[in-house]
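Consider the following assembly input.
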Amino acid sequence: MSEVLVLVDHADGKVRKSTLELLTFARRIGTPVAVFVGDAAAGEAAAAALGEHGAEKVLVASDPVYGEYLVSAHAELLAALVQERQPAAVLVTAGSEDREIAARAAIKTGSGILTDAVDVAADGSVSQQVFAASYNVTSKVAQGVPFIAVKPNSTAPEPAAAAGAVEAVSFAPTDAAKTARIVKVEEKAASGRPNLTEAAIVVSGGRGTGGDFAAVEALADSLGAAVGASRAAVDAGWYPHSHQVGQTGKAVSPQLYVAAGISGAIQHRAGMQTSKNIVAINKDDEAPIFELADFGVVGDLFQVLPQATDAVNAR
Ligand code: FAD
């Protein structure tokens, strides 16, 4: 069976759930081979989880250049691996960085790329969300090696025992890849909350919060949830962009999504409408979010959220 390269998304020494989802899709097409870019010891440590989810090999590229420069060095590496191994497909997470790496590598190898995939079939065709998830289209790359960027939470990761054999990659990026150097990395204060795209519960706030996210955060903490935000809240500077849910933010698909003071614009829906249960709190009973909600509360979020938090804490 042909290899399928899977670019590993990892942080703080942990492989992200989205990568395990990619491995599940990759097994439909061929033999998954994970590509881990980072510290050699971290690659070794990640190999166990990757092997348990079907990665036959884990290619570890640990040249320090990858940590010093933005995406171009990663793109060179991925293109070189594609040229050398001629895989059946390359799967990456549809986040902004990995999507850019894949797009650059696809250009270098004369290949086509499909983004925002939500399903991947054995023949490499994908179901893709377009126009802010208004339509699903089925597409297939017609040239070169198919590069596919898959939205997180598109499937449940399925364990499958495989070797997870670590292989060091000796490829060294050229000077041409050293275009944008990272000069400073600011450490984020740890919130203790789960990662937004992986959380089972997300509580999001919008313009209706007026910039005061305390009630949103309190409910999130009582539920062990991640905090999300609408673009209006992010654009106003009330919450960091990394928490934005929607077409130009993150795609989430938790068991429970709580939208507080969010109207339900199509671009917001694009990032949360596949949530299993949606609860909306809005003081306007005609807000479009209620068309989508499984459970709606017409009311002031500053009254409703604290009551919900008290009720959860009392359990
Ligand atoms: P509003 O639409 O202003 O809604 C605020 C809601 O809060 C209203 O329904 C109001 O009734 C309610 N409210 C007010 N006070 C209270 C209160 N005290 N209690 C309860 N309810 C209250 N948006 C995203 O979210 N994510 C994206 O990724 C995104 N990408 C975009 C990409 C493009 C190309 C474009 C053009 C737009 C994008 N948008 C995105 C913006 C989107 O169109 C909306 O403008 C945005 O989602 C609105 O945010 P909101 O619901 O918080 O604000």
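The radius of gyration is 21 Å. Ask yourself how this observation constrains the way the partners meet.
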